Amino acid sequence: MARITAGIASSHVPLLGVAADTGKDRDAYFGPIFEGYDWTRKWIARPENKPDVVILVYNDHASAFDMKIIPTFAIGCGERYRPADEGWGPRQVPDVEGHPDLAWHIAQSLILDEFDMTIINEMDVDHGLTVPLTMMYGAPDAWPAKVIPLAVNVVTYPPPSGNRCWALGEAIARAVQSFKGKDLKVHIWGTGGMSHQLQGTRAGLINAEWDNMFLDSMIGTTQALRSIPHIEYLRETGSEGIEMVMWLIMRGALGRETRALHRHYHVPCSNTAIGHIVLEPVDGTVPASPTLEGNNAAAQGAI
Amino acid sequence: MARITAGIASSHVPLLGVAADTGKDRDAYFGPIFEGYDWTRKWIARPENKPDVVILVYNDHASAFDMKIIPTFAIGCGERYRPADEGWGPRQVPDVEGHPDLAWHIAQSLILDEFDMTIINEMDVDHGLTVPLTMMYGAPDAWPAKVIPLAVNVVTYPPPSGNRCWALGEAIARAVQSFKGKDLKVHIWGTGGMSHQLQGTRAGLINAEWDNMFLDSMIGTTQALRSIPHIEYLRETGSEGIEMVMWLIMRGALGRETRALHRHYHVPCSNTAIGHIVLEPVDGTVPASPTLEGNNAAAQGAI
Amino acid sequence: MTRPRDIHDYLDAFDDIPGTRVYTAARARMGYHLNQFAMSLMKAENRARWLADERAYLEEWPMTEEQKQAVLARDYNRLLDLGGNIYFLAKLFSTDGLSFLQAVSTMTGMSVEDYKAMMDAGGRSPKGVRSIKANREAQGAAKEEIR
Amino acid sequence: MTRPRDIHDYLDAFDDIPGTRVYTAARARMGYHLNQFAMSLMKAENRARWLADERAYLEEWPMTEEQKQAVLARDYNRLLDLGGNIYFLAKLFSTDGLSFLQAVSTMTGMSVEDYKAMMDAGGRSPKGVRSIKANREAQGAAKEEIR
Ligand SMILES: [Fe+3]
Ligand SMILES: [Fe+3]
Question: Which parts of this chain are annotated as the region Disordered (chains C, D) (predicted)?
Fold first, then answer.
């Protein structure tokens, strides 16, 4: 049996990786950012909170996938993943170990639930995945948790809708609940955001008010975020703020009601508003699978 | 504007390509198979029936995709595709020309409709795609239609459910209807099947009764095929009969009611039951998009 | 039925089909390098190296010795048991110049002639090969009657 | 509204955002080879060849002359107009040793110092840069009042 014990959201700005890797993470510029993660680092190190596996929702930034192939939802079922060379050499951080047992179980379950997953067995992972690990764990010799990468297309339009992301989270929760292997504590992390725009004359846009509305709405029972259209992310949070739809996969997986354990917001890091929240499920109920293959006696009954 | 004028289903056994390429297509063994396509070749050559674009639903047989990456639904948005070398050199048939305008329009529309598509810009296409072209067109210097490849995973379990395939077809129909480019006649072809098993002591399984039930149910208003579970394909039609779920994408795209123009069934071709049907929509109505981004005023309204 | 409906029930049902291995995650993982090896034979230059020295070519792949032996022996039933998938293995038998019918027949215990004759006569009937459980129950019922 | 809701309305709305190009299919197609060129700079050996002779390296790619000129000029606004995507172009400015902040500031018409100062002070406000149409209507209303 496996269960989702917490959800974490975090920005994944590449500069945070550079700061950590070059020992600048406590200087005047980066100190206030990293301090906001100190609570989480202590909390996650405690045995009762330490996840065995992290389902890490992120987006690839033209690293593993080029324009030849653009999967909407890709789930990593491999044994391990190397940090990608993003144009300045790979980050000197540990390889990321996968959890193929749980990953394949989730992948198979999601497809029965009518999510059109792309299964990945080999790929490199970029800052979108390794920066959140750094923020939560610092610089260990090996990452303390296995990781299931879940890569979402938020670069080429259209990305998946907020509603689709939330529903995917719910289906992930069902899949984790039905895992039959070892007893596993599972985290789900949603990464990217918050407001930022990396292009054009409007670059540098930050919308602290909207970002905080978004953080507020991650907590409790509201499903308001589920129906925010893409155009609102673009107008209100800059062209790259759309990454926040990935947080909704995490939120959906936590079920009906959440409680916030920790929250941090800081402007700026480079061009971006840093947002970070730690949530736990209060009522982790998710709707039952609506599909035939996932849920109907006829689909499994012997003839 | 574009409209779907017909749906064609056909087996895509690689040996049919070999027979055609080596001039054996009218011998005692292959003659009865190819004769069943003569009606279609004549019909499709008539200007009023000739499609400008074929949305060709097929599966890749470990050619473009290896085990590193397995997309459930991949749509080809590229300019052209070369025949794959499947282990005995590529088939000497023309390159396949894409239709990026329509393909990207469909891809974008499907994602708004909450299908988690993988977009492909470069790939080779194998017998699953080129054999149906040969069956319908013979051996021209260039294929007479542009092709949008739609590759479905039916090799690694689970493939998409029948219901999901049918629903994808409906969403494709909506997308084609909303195309704003040139006036295009569009065909949708579903390929693969019918009953066959290529492995183990049960190899050679053929179920003519079930196959003909399936052909019957492609016609008219029934949606019975939509809810056949995977296990029934496996038991009744052999381990490779599951390819028939791809026909349901075609059927779904034809809308509420179909009429059969031509039908052909022959056993055997190599290990496989050959099935072929030509359908036209009678009432092409499909349900409206149920999604926010695809269908809700709030998603597009200016702020 | 009241037991939870999920991927476990879905997968368990596949084991009930006689003489059939469904290519599930479990098989895909076991056969990963075997299938990737077979895939490599799609390239003409790899086929040439393979044909020149099969054993040496196999040594480049992190496959189990059992898988390597089964490849060298062209034991397709064994290869399927070890995680092979028929569409990947097709690159192997195609390189040998075998057709699907020839290669597939080797898994049935029939001669290629007998297998071809069966196909020409309409193929193998699904009767009696739908369900292991149903067959067992039918046998039980038959014994019941005899008693 | 009664007009059909579909991808056209969805895409049209993107053109209403000031100073912003959304990376849609239309842009992705125009910039295909430009972005694939940029992607190639993820490999150390390609970066070395690129740095040794930029023009010669560019000639290997089926890009338009306009795209090539904009690459050589590091004109990022132009590159976005020509179908570039910022995450692909990041391989280019990373190879130059530029940070995201430095590269991004070049698109704003501000000096890097002024841009950094704006960011440190809380970033650019969304006020007045949400909608071209809304801005136009607000201007109209203001003129109305003056009269
Ligand atoms: Fe990002
Ligand atoms: Fe096939």
Answer: 123-147
Q: What is the pLDDT of residue C5?
A: 61
Q: Does residue B148 carry a pLDDT above 50?
A: yes
| Conformation bin of residue D109: beta by default, left when phi > 0, alpha when psi is -120 to 50 | left
**Taking CB atoms and an 8 Å cutoff, what residues of chain A touch D38?**
62
In terms of Cα–Cα distance, which of A241, A198, A243 is closest to D89?
A198
What value does the mean pLDDT of chain A take?
95
Please report residues of C whose CB lies closer than 8 A to that of A301: 1
Q: Please report, in angstroms and rounded to a whole number, the separation of the first and last CA atoms in chain C.
A: 33
For residue B295, pLDDT over 70 is answered with no
Q: Which of A114, A122, A177, A300 to mutate to test the interface with C (most CBs of C within 10 A)?
A: A300
Read off the pLDDT band of D3 (50, 70, 90). Answer: very low
State which amino acid sits at residue C72. L
Q: Is residue D97 packed enough to be buried (19+ CB in 10 Å), middle (13-18) or exposed (0-12)?
A: exposed
CB B124 within 8 A of CB B63: yes
Q: Which residues make Cβ contacts (< 8 Å) with residue B101, sequence separation at least 6?
A: B181
Contact A271 D100 (CB under 8 A): yes
Secondary structure (DSSP) of B201-266: TTTTB--HHHHHHHHHHTSBS--GGGG--HHHHHHHH-TTGGGGHHHHHHHHHT-SEEEEEEEEEE
Which pLDDT tens digit goes with each residue over A97-156?
999 999 999 999 999 999 999 999 999 999 999 999 999 999 999 999 999 999 999 999
Reply yes or no on whether the pLDDT at B246 is more than 60: yes
Over residues C71-81, the pLDDT tens digits come to 999 999 999 99
Of C1, C25, C131, the CB nearest to A297: C1
**Residue B247: both structure tokens together:** 């026909």
A204 and chain D in contact, CB less than 8 A: yes
Nearest ligand to the C-alpha atom of residue B126: 2
Please report where in the chains the tokens 């496959």 appear, as a residue. Answer: C63
- Contact call for residues C31 and C92 (beta carbons, < 8 A): no
Distance of alpha carbon A41 from alpha carbon A58, whole angstroms: 20
Give the per-residue pLDDT at B86: 87
Mean pLDDT for D94-109 is 95
The ipTM, to two decimals, is 0.95
Looking up tokens 């397995």 gives B70
- Could you say which DSSP state residue A79 is in? S
Strand-strand pairing, B118-120 and A69-71 = antiparallel
In chain D, what's the furthest Cα-to-Cα distance? Answer: 66
- Residues of chain B contacting residue D26, judged by C-beta atoms under 8 Å apart: 104
Q: Please list the alpha-helical segments (H only) found in A138-184.
A: 162-177
Please judge whether C123 and B195 are an interchain contact, meaning their C-beta atoms are less than 8 angstroms apart: yes
Distance from CA of C144 to the nearest CA of B (A): 26
pTM for this entry: 0.96
With 90 as the cut, is the pLDDT of residue C93 above it?
A: yes
Q: How far apart are CA C128 and CA B207, in angstroms?
A: 12
Matching residue, tokens 């203001």: D142
Q: Which residue of C has its CA nearest to A119?
A: C25
Q: Are the C-beta atoms of C35 and C85 separated by less than 8 Å?
A: yes
What's the number of CA atoms in the CB half-sphere (13 Å) around residue C73? 13
B148 vs B53: CA distance, rounded Å:
7
In this complex, the chains that touch C, judged by 3 or more CB pairs closer than 8 A, are A, B
Q: Are B275 and B218 in contact (CB under 8 A)?
A: no
Angle, CA A103 vertex, CA A102 and CA A106 arms, to 5°: 85
- Buried/exposed C93-118: b ≥16 CB within 10 Å, e otherwise: bbbeebbbbebbbbbbebebeebbeb
Statement: residue C147 has pLDDT above 90: no
Collapsing DSSP states into helix, strand and coil, what is residue D55? helix
For D83-131, the DSSP string reads T--HHHHHHHHHHTT--HHHHHHTTTTS-HHHHHHHHHTT-B-STT-S-
> Residue A119's pLDDT is what?
98
Token couple for A101: 């047992």
